[in-house]
Amino acid sequence: MNWINIITTLITSTTSIIVALIAAGFFKSWMEKFKEKKSQGKLIKQIQKDEVVHFTIRELRRKYNADRIYIMQFHNGGMFYTQAPMQKVSITFERCSDGLERMFERFQNVFVSHHTWFISETINMGMFSTNIEEDVRDLPTRSLLKTFGNYALSSVPIYDINKNLIGILSLSWVFSEIPDEILENNNFSEKFKTELSSESNSLATYLL
Fold first, then answer.
1. Residue ranges of domains in the chain
2. How many CB atoms lie within 10 A of CB 207?
């Protein structure tokens, strides 16, 4: 009788272990599939946001007859030895006229400290110039813009809902004429500046 009890106990224990292992395997597999599905969901959601941004800036470039439109976003790019974060900026979205070299490939992980004048000007009052050669006082900024053939530029800051600066929206003209309807006394009109700022605020939702 004792042997029967012992064998029964062993069988029951073995069965319980096997069931537990099988259950653990199924749970692990389910969790992996859940994580994969969740990751795919985030990716799809991000792709949908990116499509909205690409469509919006494409239409803005066409609307204002610009040759290039791009978005620069601020981010951390590593740590200094003091453990302070490196403040960097990269072009994340860009649309150009046919034949123009894209700035995207050459403007990644750039230190914010290299372009403080341009960023400060954009934050304070927007960077609006119908003649970069005459209007842009900062030599590094002027050289960078002229390297890519720009003769005119309009840049406005992009803020999130908490008024944190997250990026800059820029339009530039290389060989196309600036439309007369956005000019006033050979400068960009206040109406255009307001419209562009409004567009940047709309884009902010899709950049977070």
1. 49-207
2. 18
pTM for the whole thing?
Answer: 0.77
Of 56, 92, 52, 58, nearest in space to 74 by CA: 92
- d(CA 140, CA 162) in angstroms, rounded, equals 31
What are the C-alpha distances in Å from 172 to residues 49, 100, 103?
Answer: 24, 12, 12
pLDDT tens-digit readout, 127-156: 999 999 999 989 989 998 999 999 999 999
Helix (H) or strand (E) holding 93: strand 85-96
Residue indicated by tokens 């290389």: 174
| DSSP code, position 108 | S
Structure tokens that stand for 119 in this block: 């960023």
User: Alpha-carbon distance 110 to 105, whole Å?
Assistant: 12
**Tokens 């939702």 identify what position?**
205
> What DSSP state is assigned to residue 15?
H
What tokens were used for 167?
């990026």
Structure tokens belonging to residue 178: 């600036």
- Pairing between β-strand 85-96 and β-strand 110-111 as defined by DSSP bridges: antiparallel
SS3 125: helix
Tell me the CA end-to-end span of the chain in Å, nearest whole number.
71
Q: What is the pLDDT of residues 36-93, one digit of tens each?
A: 666 666 768 778 888 989 999 999 999 999 999 999 999 887 676 776 677 889 999 9
Q: Can you name the CATH fold of 49-207?
A: Beta-Lactamase (3.30.450)
